[in-house]
Amino acid sequence: MLLFPIAVFSFVDVYIMYDSTNLTEVCTVNPWIFILQRYIWAFYTLLYPIVISIFCFSLFDIEYKNDYLKKLFTLPVNTSNIFGAKVLYIIMMSFMSAMISYLLLLLSAFILENVYSIYPFNRYDYSFANFIFFIRLFIATLSIASLQLLVSTSFKTFVIPICIAGVGVVLSLISQRAEFVVFIPYFSLFDLMNKYQSGSTDLLGKVEIINVTYIFVFITFAYLKFISLCKKRI
Amino acid sequence: MYAIETKDLSFNYKKKPLLESLDLQIPTGSIYGYLGKNGAGKSTTIKLLLGLLPALQNTIYHNGLELNSHKREILSMVGSLVESPAYYGNLTGYENLLYLKNIYGCNSQKIYDVLQKVNLIGDKDKMVKKYSSGMKQRLGIAMALLNDPNTLILDEPLNGLDPEGVYEIRELIIDLKKEGKTILLSSHILSEIQKTCTHVGILHDGRLCYQGTLVELMNNVSVEINIQSNDILKIQQICMESKISINAIEQNNILITLNKGEQKDFMTKLDKEGVNIQKSESVDKDLEEIYLNLTKR
Predict the structure, then answer these.
(1) pTM greater than the 0.80 cutoff
(2) A224 CA: distance to closest CA in chain B (Å)
(3) What is the ipTM of this complex?
(4) Last residue of one domain, picked from the residues B189, B217, B245
(5) Rounded distance, CA A40 to CA A35, Å?
(6) Using CA atoms, how far apart are residues B135 and A67, in angstroms rounded to an integer?
(7) CATH code where residue B263 lies
(8) What is the DSSP letter of B92?
């Protein structure tokens, strides 16, 4: 999950540098939006949900595989602490992933502007919009991760969480104009870019409020599922 | 006080009774062998004792503390190995123990001590997924010992061990008893129970059909003695007086059955009465036969 932004930004930066060797004209549109929308965001909307689903599933799979849950429950630790540790880890990883993405965007902008002056990032003050963008990314990631946490406590195989991620992305993609689309957690990744393009710096829009609600609802259901699952597996 | 005590402990699974009115009494400082065939309810009992399965209030006590109301306190004093050992395969043996050490909050030196005890110190930096099944079993025991527990609950700890490993673990269990620890040992290997345990509990179809010391169990069982003598009539008379059953009489041989505990007294009595014994042979029953007899009832 942490490697994903590093891989995407490195790949995109190398590609832009390679592609820019033939370009002489200075970019006339906002390079922040241009770089994110044209090169980077496709990876985040299509691949990132799958990475999140694998990450969440692996958090439980390691204990399912080795029958470690039984051992955990013979230790003087509460079930809620075990589940809480997993949720905390997801929150930390989601936050770090969003922050790494943010820092990598700034680094990419610095490199591209200084090495190839065709991208005038300094001409546009987008620092606040960028920051809000990645805070929104954190909320969206956490909402998707919470859903995947619930899915991972319900199924033993990683195929189903990945399928759910795939269906969620496709559904968000094909029903972008429908009213109900705001209720699909995966849509928030598409919505992020729309708001970034329009320059909106509102942190808590309708989609974000729905996402925050989802985080609490999914985590609560995942906890209840985790308790019942542990009893069954023992 | 008992290290572990259950009072009228019952457990049903899908309305089928797995355990019925179990009154386990495991004395402090003993090695308690818990015997029973597959499906008798041994693992269920162990899971109940560790709080992995729900038990009714006031049915399970560890050192006098009720399990449901003192669960964390009890679990910090108990080490366990339930069924197959659980571990993180992508971590080394040392890292697996380090993880538990952080949960228990014990000393780092303890990791080396338990690795030394189970003879895994040389393989501590090897990934556990590369361990043999015997090494995994020994790591499981090391994990159970890490918090320096008063009570150790080991479910089939000898599974997957080679003869050398079985010997080492047996010696380790005996050493732990000497340190004052109480050990509940569930096993199918009756010969090991006979060599290791001081107390035995035999479970059959969810009910405890014997509980007591191993010595009592071995003494209360009958033993067959074949005596070769010229005074068969005198022996016959003594047997009738002592209410000892005679199985067969053949020329100078008499075959009798008596409790093992009475064997010595009976032979002394024959000696005192001046019976000339040419030869005597006793056929002892081992734990396996005793176990089979008890569970056939």
Answers:
(1) no
(2) 17
(3) 0.74
(4) B217
(5) 7
(6) 17
(7) 3.30.2130.10
(8) B
